[in-house]
Specification:
With 435 residues, this protein is mostly beta strands. It is built from three helices and 29 strands. It folds into three domains: 185 residues, Sandwich (Immunoglobulin-like), CATH 2.60.40; 107 residues, Immunoglobulins (Immunoglobulin-like, Sandwich); 115 residues, Jelly Rolls. The longest helix is centred in the N-terminal third of the chain and has 18 residues.
């Protein structure tokens, strides 16, 4: 039953006066709910916590009460009992129950220690002081007090199961925020563990596309010609990510360059950073190397990527001829942007630029602008196979450019493919050809 908020507050104040006068070791009932359950992160699955929150003052007499954790079948797997009361009994105050790994990850001290018994695939947590319980995923035990479990597909690592605070006073925990149905009462959110001293923990998270160790693949290019690829870095935690000290190593570090300046700072919630890398193969064949980065993520203080690039000889019997830079394609001038997975073919040899129909390949600069989603562009001779490596990668909303050498078919045509989603305008400026 949901008690009207004003009545609850009045009752809570009366209870507080009684508690202050009698000063018992513990109360039999608490106006307190489970507000957050965190299952850990991928690199620290034992960094788990449960957070309680008061919705009336004077609820800090928790001595002898416990937080209980159950598995998916409803069997008890952990009981964590308060050995003493907590000092802060203010309305909306929190109590944090956390593992040692969670305290280290978030830089916050727990009010009660627990062991890592929260199973992301399903379970239930209860606070014995109020009888409040929450369940998640494939929990099949008693539905009393929990209704339908939250997030049937599983609790994703790195995300907290967090109680909604929008059904009474917005942003304030009220009795209206509990309808005894976990699927309704909770949402997935970034973790924000808060202890009884009102200290909120944060953590730095490093993510990237591709994920380390990659590879960051450049594909093949004629020896001596530069080719650019990008590495996208994301902040995946709840605090500013710092990335610094790019170091090239491995077998052929001299073939590569880091074009983007460092250090890189990405605030929590900010857009990803795009790191531009370049390979200029100095000899034919595979030219592998590595790229190491330093981060302030305590779980990933150093990340290392494999860089792959191959040098090709110029096609036999062909010579290279330069031309003044000439814009051969600009989809902004007509035809609209290139749509993902819909090939667009353009005439380069014998077209508007001084590239003869007899040209076998062209050297060009490829640029993308106004992309609607993250993706890449692949250039190849019209009618040929789609290459496994892209000519340029990009993220939504950015304008980027790269160099490439692309073959032409007998009709002087090349094809542009954008993938995997959205669309982007493509600009091709030729600066030479092979014949």
């Amino acid at each position: 039953m949901i008690i009207p908020r004003m009545s609850v507050r009045l009752f809570g104040l009366v209870a507080l006066v009684w508690l202050t006068c009698s000063r018992p070791a513990a109360t039999a009932f608490h106006f307190m709910m489970v507000v957050e359950v965190f299952p850990g992160v991928a690199l620290a699955p034992n960094a788990q916590y449960v957070e309680l929150q008061m919705w009336s003052p004077g609820q800090n007499f928790v001595l002898g009460h416990a937080v209980q954790v159950f598995n998916a079948a409803g069997a008890l797997v952990g009981t964590f009992t308060f050995p003493d009361n907590v000092p802060n009994g203010a309305d909306q105050a929190s109590i944090l129950i956390a593992t040692a790994e969670a305290q280290s990850l978030f830089g916050v001290t727990a009010d009660l220690a627990m062991t890592p018994v929260v199973n992301p695939s399903g379970g239930k947590v209860c606070f014995t002081g109020s009888g409040d319980c929450v369940a998640w995923c494939n929990y099949t035990g008693s539905p009393a007090g929990v209704g339908a479990p939250f997030s049937p597909g599983g609790l994703p690592l790195g995300q907290a199961m967090q109680r909604r605070l929008d059904r009474g006073t917005p942003g304030v925990l009220d009795p209206e925020d509990d309808v005894d149905d976990s699927a309704t009462d909770f949402v997935s959110s970034a973790p924000a563990p808060r202890n009884n001293g009102n200290v909120v923990g944060t953590y730095v998270g490093y993510g990237s596309t591709p994920a380390p160790p990659g590879p960051v693949a450049f594909g093949s290019i004629v020896v001596g010609f530069p080719l650019t690829r990008t590495l996208t870095i994301q902040e995946t935690g709840t605090a500013t990510l710092m990335v610094s000290n790019p170091a090239l190593g491995g077998g052929n570090p001299g073939d590569y360059a880091v074009v983007t300046g460092f250090p890189i700072s990405i605030a929590d919630g900010a857009a990803p950073a795009v790191v531009e890398l370049r390979c200029t193969p100095q000899a034919e064949g595979p030219r592998p190397a590595t790229l190491a980065l330093t981060t302030n993520d305590t779980l990933r203080p150093t990340v290392v990527y494999d860089l792959t690039c191959a040098g090709d000889a110029a096609p036999p019997g062909l010579s290279y001829f330069t031309v003044s830079p000439c814009r051969a394609v600009d989809t902004r001038d007509g035809g609209g942007p290139v749509v993902a997975n819909v090939d667009r073919t353009f005439t380069i040899g014998g077209g508007s630029c001084p590239i003869p129909l007899t040209a076998k390949a062209v050297s060009l600069n490829v640029a993308v602008t106004q992309p609607t989603a993250n993706g890449n562009v692949r250039l190849f001779p019209a009618g040929g196979a789609v290459p496994t490596s892209s000519s340029i990668n990009y993220v939504a909303g950015q304008t980027r450019a790269n160099n490439a050498v692309v073959g032409l078919n007998a009709q002087g045509e090349l094809t542009v493919r954008c993938q995997n989603q959205g669309s982007t305008h493509v600009i091709l400026d030729v600066n030479g050809y092979f014949e």
